[in-house]
User: What shape does this take?
Amino acid sequence: MAKQFETLNEKLANFISKQHIFFTASATADSRINVSPREIGAFRVVDESCVLYLDRTGSGNETSAHLLADGRLTIMFCAFSGAPNILRLYGKGEVIGWHEDEFKALIDQHFDGEVPLGARKIVRLSIDLVQTSCGYGVPLFDHQGERPSLINWAENKGPEGIKAYWQEKNLESMDGLPTGLEIPAD
Assistant: This one.
C-alpha cells in the first residue's frame, strides 16, 4: 500500500494544500523523540524537493535543537476528511533564525513579508524521500477552524514578554541540547 517517490509531484502538493494540520518529528541518537502538531497556514511548498514552515514560539524548542545536532526531520500529513491518505516527507532539516538575512528574504518571498509576533525561525526541509500510505486507520474529523490561542498568547505577552519567555523556555531542549535561538538585544 505504501508508495515511495524521490520528490513531490503536483498531485501530492495538491493533497498538502487541502490539509489543515501537519506534524513534525525529530530526534537525535540520544534524545527523546519530538512530535509536534502545526497549523497548515505556516507551511509552504517551495519546489518538488524543498518545503518550509514558519515556526512560532511554543512551550519548547525541540525541533531546533534536534536539527542543530542531527538534522533529520520528518513531516507528516493525514487526510482527516475525504479519501484516506498519509503523506510523509523525509529529509534534512535546517533552521533559519529571525536574525539571519535569509529569514527576511524567505518571509518576503513566501509569507507576503509578514512576520507574526512570536515567530522565531523558519524550518526548511530538503526532501530525500516522499512516502504515501493508505491512511485507513486515520479517523474522520471535521475542521472547525484555527484556534486563536497562540495569537492571543503572543499579543498578551508582547515583544518583551516573548523575549523573556524565549530566555526561560526556548534556549535548550528538554534533554539539555542548545536550540541556537537568538534573542534580540533591543
